Amino acid sequence: MFADSAKIFIKSGKGGDGHVSFRRELYVPNGGPDGGDGGRGGDVIFQVDKGKNTLVDFRHVRKYIARDGEQGGKKRCHGADAEDLIVKVPEGTVIKDFESGKVIADMSGDNQREVILRGGKGGLGNMHFATSTMQVPKYAQPGQPGAELFVQLELKVIADVGLVGFPNVGKSTLLSVVSNAKPEIANYHFTTLNPHLGVVDLGDGAGFVMADIPGLIEGASEGVGLGHAFLKHIERTKVLVHVVDGASVEGRDPLEDIRTINKELEAYNPELLKRPQVIAANKMDAVYSEDDSNEILDALRAEFEPKGIKVFAISAVSRQGVKEMLYHINDLLKTVDDAPVVFEKEFEIEYQGDRNLPYTVSKEEEGLYVVEGPRIEKMLGYTNLDSEKGFDFFQKFLKNTGILKELEEAGIKEGDTVRIYGLEFDYYK
């Protein structure tokens, strides 16, 4: 069974409580406090497992709860830290907050291991609270609570090239003859339910990963059928190959099919239409002509080649025209950014202790304001300000934490400069 999404509950461990105790020694009637600190609660850590290619395990186990830290002991004994809980997922898994749908982490590229929920800190024992006026403190600090969250896991396949098209146009057959993939192939009028990946080897070190994206239908971008489940797999691909029935064996109109799919792609994510496209007019072995041309092929070339989209007449069964198309796709891949498509973090997990992290807003000189503090440093550590989404997240952080309000109360005006740890921004409402 293939599974490409799952909803699960995760919870980090609570910190162990600090201990209250006093020394009991012979000839020492009033021994001082010696209660030890509690141990740290376990983190919830997601880690990529190269051997996994499905989220099916999460259909059976839906709760992942880390252990609590051990409480402190007498004689200044520190409670043991809890073991971290490691959750293994396939590469390409995107972890989202279930309520908002915002990205917490994308387990792709260099991000092979990430702490999603930190365990609570252990509480301090009563030995820390002795003062000259309070020599026998009878209280200790409780451990910080763990954090809990419902998250949505989504597996988005990692492929350079995505084959798109309506059911029964030959995508699975094409993938099977050009790569090492072994998809099930049959003449069904409904779509393959899971994407297949294959490595296309062109020799001399050249090649790429190709995915057969499950067939799309009109209305997919609105969630009709399994539309959203299919469309999300296209988001990481760099080149899209429209596979159409060039011989119109079943009476489909290939031009209308391509227009329909591009319309669905645009409705789902307009950025997808900016990626290079290729058209594979398949089943041309069913057309008996000397130059492999027909009305459909001529119409495809007339409409799309002026837009820079090359049309190839191929037959996945006889492999006619396939090699030329693969080399063209390989050339297109050289023109696009070869960095993996990784989804930016959009969601900040709030911890009870984080809300108390201090920050300061001060006026350095006329027209220059400085913001600094541990909470700001923490946020900058996981936010990519070079990306549009990252900067948008940064602006919301400043607003939601009240920093913008404090800047306004300090007298900031439009055009003034805000400096945050070496970064400078102009302030505009």
From TrEMBL:
SUPFAM superfamilies: Obg GTP-binding protein C-terminal domain, Obg GTP-binding protein N-terminal domain, P-loop containing nucleoside triphosphate hydrolases
Cofactor: Mg(2+)
Enzyme class: hydrolase
Cellular localization per UniProt: Cytoplasm
Main localization, broad class: cytoplasm
Record-linked CDD domains: Obg
Keywords: Cytoplasm, GTP-binding, Hydrolase, Magnesium, Metal-binding, Nucleotide-binding
Residues the entry annotates as binding GTP: 165-172, 190-194, 212-215, 282-285, 315-317
Enzyme Commission number(s) of this protein: 3.6.5.-
Domain called OBG-type G: residue spans: 159-334
Entry binding sites for Mg(2+): S172, T192
Gene3D superfamilies the UniProt entry points to: GTP-binding protein OBG, C-terminal domain (3.30.300.350), GTP1/OBG domain (2.70.210.12), P-loop containing nucleotide triphosphate hydrolases (3.40.50.300)
InterPro entries, sorted: G_OBG, GTP-bd, GTP-bd_Obg/CgtA, GTP-bd_prot_GTP1/OBG_C_sf, GTP1-OBG_CS, GTP1_OBG_dom, GTP1_OBG_dom_sf, OBG_GTPase
Record domain OCT: where: 351-429
Obg domain residues: 1-158
Subunit structure: Monomer.
NCBIfam families in the cross-refs: Obg_CgtA (TIGR02729), Obg_CgtA_exten (TIGR03595), PRK12296.1 (NF008954), PRK12297.1 (NF008955), PRK12299.1 (NF008956)
Role of this protein: An essential GTPase which binds GTP, GDP and possibly (p)ppGpp with moderate affinity, with high nucleotide exchange rates and a fairly low GTP hydrolysis rate. Plays a role in control of the cell cycle, stress response, ribosome biogenesis and in those bacteria that undergo differentiation, in morphogenesis control.
Family: Belongs to the TRAFAC class OBG-HflX-like GTPase superfamily. OBG GTPase family.
Protein name per its UniProtKB record: GTPase Obg
Species of origin: Enterocloster hominis (ex Hitch et al. 2024)
Gene transcribed to yield this protein: obgE
